[in-house]
Write a structure and sequence with these properties.
- It holds the Pfam family RNA_pol_Rpb5_C.
- InterPro entries: Arch_Rpo5/euc_Rpb5 (IPR014381), RNA_pol_Rpb5_N (IPR005571), RNA_pol_Rpb5_N_sf (IPR036710), RNA_pol_subH/Rpb5_C (IPR000783), RNA_pol_subH/Rpb5_CS (IPR020608), RPB5-like_sf (IPR035913).
- GO terms for molecular function: DNA binding; DNA-directed RNA polymerase activity.
- The protein is globular and about 65 Å long.
- The strands form two sheets. The protein has a four-stranded mixed β-sheet with strand order 1-2-3-4, covered by helices on one side. The protein has a four-stranded mixed β-sheet with strand order 5-7-8-6.
- 34% of the residues lie in helices and 19% in strands.
- The protein has two domains: 133 residues, RNA polymerase, Rpb5, N-terminal domain (Dna-directed Rna Polymerases I, Ii, And Iii 27 Kd Polypeptide, Chain: A, domain 1, 3-Layer(aba) Sandwich); 69 residues, RPB5-like RNA polymerase subunit (Eukaryotic RPB6 RNA polymerase subunit), CATH 3.90.940.20.
- The protein is of the alpha/beta class.
- A hairpin with a 3-residue loop joins strand 7 and strand 8.
Length: 229
């Protein structure tokens, strides 16, 4: 790869890694401001070889959920339950693949790594789209949670766009309070699909409720709520 081609690819992957880490931080994982806003020079020093070519294997990272995230993912206690429920979240592991073909073998290998290392969630960022057969096996890999992102979808952080309102995941307690306050069932709330770009950015799961805060010329700010389906 020529030097100018290296520079273009390094710059592109720098933006992708930066967005990926910002996404994980926005979900509630423990990542520093420095990690989320790494400079291009620092990225080049850490993630390229002696020729200046980017090395995706070096870009992999893990992050633990912060206390606030653990709370948002802890189910409400059931009647008669002596011990509090365990949070339905844990360490996330992120890998980047430049392979031109992502098939069943690649997905299974990533799932095996998540299982062996006891990672709760895996995010697989790929240069090319996985085959349809590879995507179909992902639901069978439960309880491992695996998310696939194309590199091109992470070149820009959509949550930072001025036209995208703030999305905040409600905890189970906040969700219950919301439904009681308005005397609603969750099925009566407006809906958001889990494959919606912002839902995918936040890793929303079916049944969760997200608060969407929009700017208003008259009210300043106003909130609406969406039920993930």
């Amino acid at each position: 790869m020529a030097a100018n081609e290296n520079d273009r690819e390094v710059s592109r992957l720098w933006r992708i890694v930066r967005t990926t880490k910002q996404m994980c931080a926005d979900r509630g994982y423990e990542l520093t401001e420095e990690e989320c806003n790494i400079s291009l020079d620092s990225f080049r020093q850490q993630y390229t070889d002696e020729t200046g070519a980017p090395q995706r294997t070096k870009m992999a990272f893990t992050a633990r959920p912060a206390e606030a995230m653990l709370k948002r993912y802890t189910p409400l206690p059931r009647a008669g339950q002596s011990d509090g429920p365990e949070p339905q979240i844990g360490t996330v592991h992120v890998e980047f693949s430049g392979s031109a073909n992502i098939g069943i073998k690649d997905i299974k290998a990533f799932a095996q790594l998540l299982s062996e290392k006891n990672y709760y969630t895996g995010i697989f960022v790929t240069a090319s789209a996985p085959t349809s057969s590879a995507l179909k096996i992902i639901p069978s890999l439960l309880p491992t949670i695996m998310e696939i992102f194309r590199e091109e979808d992470l070149l820009v952080n959509i949550s930072r766009h001025e036209l995208v309102p703030k999305h905040l995941l409600l905890s189970p307690e906040e969700k219950r309070s919301l439904l009681e306050r308005y005397r609603l069932k969750e099925t009566q709330l407006p809906r958001i699909r889990v494959d919606d770009p912002m839902a995918k950015y936040l890793g929303l799961r079916r049944g969760q409720v997200v608060k969407i805060i929009r700017k208003s010329e008259t009210a300043g700010r106003y909130a609406s709520y969406r039920w993930a389906i």
